[in-house]
Amino acid sequence: MPSKEYNPLNPKKLLLSKWTAVKPTHKRKHFLVSKVILPELPETAIEFIELEAVFDQSTQVIPWRELKNTEIWLQGWV
Question: What single string gives the DSSP state of each residue in 22-69?
């Protein structure tokens, strides 16, 4: 089975992907990527995404590369 190192995240394909917070806060554990925030200049790389908590639909904007940190996020709903 391929490792996640060999299957890097692509910010263009993150929309509606599911994530689990390793250390949940305020009962917010499961999240969906609700929006990929496109840069003002089309030739600029995507930097940010919007995560929506399944528990209360609160949103937060984070750099998409933060999802690679397995001490904070796990891919899928665990």
Answer: EEEETTEEEEEEEEEE--SSTTSPP-EEEEEETTT--EEEEEGGGGG-
